[in-house]
Amino acid sequence: MSRVVFLEERCKGCKLCVEVCPVGILRPSGRYNRQGYEVMEMAGVCTGCASCAIICPDVAIRVFKSGKHKGGAA
């Protein structure tokens, strides 16, 4: 499973990431950073598409894609 990490002090609460997420897993968190902006959070299973990180004007999002485990003998 991939995951999204928000650099909360960079977030300005624009919600562009929420709008662009194709699976709708991003939402306002109810937490606020030191600048008074509400920060976002991940609430669901991330596909790792990174649309949120690409659209973020404040470069406040990091997407960590899960590696695919290959089965079989070595």
Please give a structural write-up.
The structure is a single chain. The protein has 74 residues and is of the alpha+beta class. The chain has a single domain, classed as 2-Layer Sandwich (Alpha-Beta Plaits). The protein has helices at 16-20, 51-55; strands at 3-6, 26-32, 38-42, 61-64. A two-stranded antiparallel ribbon has the order 1-4. A two-stranded antiparallel sheet has the order 2-3. Strand 2 and strand 3 (38-42) form a beta hairpin.
Note the topology.
Elements: E1 3-6, H1 16-20, E2 26-32, E3 38-42, H2 51-55, E4 61-64
Antiparallel strand pairs: 1-4, 2-3
Write a brief caption for the model.
The chain has helices spanning 16-20, 51-55; strands at residues 3-6, 26-32, 38-42, 61-64. It has 74 residues and is α+β, with helices and mostly antiparallel strands.
Features:
alpha+beta; 74 residues; Alpha-Beta Plaits; two-stranded antiparallel sheet; 27% strand; 14% helix; single chain; 2 helices
Strand order of the largest sheet: 1-4
Q: What is the CATH architecture term?
A: 2-Layer Sandwich
Q: Could you list the spans in which at least 5 consecutive residues all have pLDDT below 50?
A: none
What percent of residues adopt helix (DSSP H or I)? 10-25%
Strand content: 25-35%
Shape descriptor: globular
* SS elements, strand count: 4
The structural domain count equals 1
Secondary-structure content class = alpha+beta
Instruction: Compute the separation of the termini in Å.
Output: 24 Å
Most strands sheet: 2 strands, antiparallel
CATH class: Alpha Beta
Number of helices: 2
Task: Indicate the CATH topology.
Answer: Alpha-Beta Plaits
How confident overall, as mean pLDDT? 92
